[in-house]
Amino acid sequence: MSSVLDNLVNQPYKHGFVTDIESETAPRGLNEDIIRLISAKKSEPQWLLDFRLKAYEHWLTMPAPHWANVHHPKIDFQDIIYYSAPKPKKKQSMDEVDPELLRTFEKLGVPMNERAALAGVAVDVIFDSVSVATTYKQKLAEVGIIFCSISEAVRDHPELVRQYLGSVVPTGDNYYAALNSAVFTDGSFCFIPKGVKCPMELSTYFRINTQDSGQFERTLIIAEDDASVSYLEGCTAPKFDTNQLHAAVVELVALDRADIKYSTVQNWYAGDEKGVGGIYNFVTKRGLCKGVNSRISWTQVETGSAITWKYPSCILLGDHSVGEFYSVALTNHFQQADTGTKMVHIGRNTRSTVVSKGISAGHSSNSYRGLVKVGPRAAGARNFSQCDSMLVGAKCSANTFPYIDVQNSSAQVEHEATTSKIGEDQLFYFRQRGIGTEEAVSMIINGFCKEVFQQLPMEFAVEATKLLGLKLEGSVG
Amino acid sequence: MIVANAKVLLEVRNLRANVAGVEILKGMSLTVKAGEIHAIMGPNGSGKSTFAKVLAGHPAYEVTGGEVLFEGRNLLELEAEERARLGVFLGFQYPVEIPGVTNSAFLRLAYNTVQGARGKDELDPLEFDDLVREKMKGLEMDPAFLDRSVNEGFSGGEKKRNEILQMAMLEPLLSILDETDSGLDIDALRVVAGGVNRLQNPHSACVLVTHYQRLLNYIVPDYVHVMDDGRLIKTGGKSLALELEERGYDWVVNAATA
After folding, report:
1. Which pTM was predicted?
2. Is residue A20 domain-resident?
3. Engineered SS bond to A292: which of A318, A348, A441, A454, CB 3.0-4.6 Å?
């Protein structure tokens, strides 16, 4: 059987090309001078340099985390390039963007022109460390929405950035967040003012191009009272036989009755079928439901990266606030994923829902790790968690690590978990009814992931379905 | 029904097959013509279910000898899904559960795939819904089944009805029903048998694999075969099944090996 299973998983990575583009690159390694260089390159105010240096000092005192169920050689942080920007400098409009870059994004299928208008999506594009293009800025500005790179936000809206940066993920929060806080180079910034419902999907595409550069982007999204926004990020990287580090930080802040929906379709290069190369994706994502009746919803489809270490979380501070986490994590070959969420209930009558679907194929390892914490004040808090694992073939593994900490007796916490396997008999059943193996696998996987895909914006749900099909092609025997 | 000059649908000659290196079929031969109903009976472990799965192309079984012709074509060189599209249907003894895939989505994909392979038009979801609801009535199935995951949480009887529903939708030329009667109470047996009987026509045929003759009170076979140790050892009419019920299998087996 494994021959059908094996074949189905072995689809080549399509985004593995390198763009030949002139970059301005800092020397390898990390020290105070590099941080000062990054800050100077970006003409940052003193408070931001201080923020970085404080984070760096903290980072130096911290040990690398080792509790996750992932294994990799020690990362040499002095062998990484912390700043790499496409040259020449950033342009003002899309027409002036380096055509080579635009071709890159065309290859990736990222809509940066009129097609984006048709799709109703505003796009910010981060190439290596620097934001190269943000579309629809004007149109969004008309309703008061700020959507730009974080560098621009530092320049044009310093008071907002200063107020919220690090307010959800403090500089010393964890090892990789501290590193990010010290060296982040760009990312997206999004501010939805009071009462505004963002009229289109906002989207950021991240691309790592330089072989030894790390990517440390920083995303900050703020939705004021009664505001709402739906945001999507997509990620790809070229194929290299070395590992690249991606350590991003995403912070979301939702004020009273605000609603933020954050969707990710992550397709970083995962390494080859022997496990060589690929991205180390060590990301801190956290949302703060600060206001009453606010809601933050994370949806992620994780298919890439050699290693994924990521726990999009919600701090439910406001009374009656709602946190949601919907995840599909697919691992194949020698990929490792340790992903899940944290739902921290602080306010009264806060509610959270966790739906996690892990699919493991090949020799991969796929772990769900989740914390549900109910604080002493969180009367009436409710959580429902469902963690389902599916195994494709016999050499992969799936693990579930749920942590539950309840300090209020009126709270209700439910956890359900299942494990299933795509087996020969299931596939034979489909085939005996005339349905070919690949269609059968795709139907089983889609059925398995349905609750999560339903949460994605329509066109991305289609993309995600296709992506999973491609990733598993040839893997079912 | 035995039809004069009916064409041969299935021709199995001296078929041998292994599973996990152990030979289970040891020279199985059977000829089935259009319109006929055959019952294959035999003690546990005689190879009945293996025979059914080998005909359908289950990948766990390795064919080591003999041949199988379906309407004159070599069935053994075709993949399981190709056999299904030609009209070979296997009603499973233990239908698998497929969580997350609704019965209606599964049935519609199967139906449209098979229709497409036969050069017929596919049905859109609404047309399909009409057709499937009509077929369900005959099997006394609740339409709510359509929205449930395939076989998930179904009782034994519900699973078997679902198999017959699939058979009714796919309109196979050759239906092989593997222990369709097992796990059925008398009411379910009546409904399932009624469904099978309604599907009989002069162009198609049915092979019933069963341990007990109970099913044959409802679906009357033209031929009853006794299988033992991987091949047929005796063939008779309906009366043979009754005799087997009364006397057991030993006398046939002993007579064959004597």
Report:
1. 0.79
2. yes
3. A318
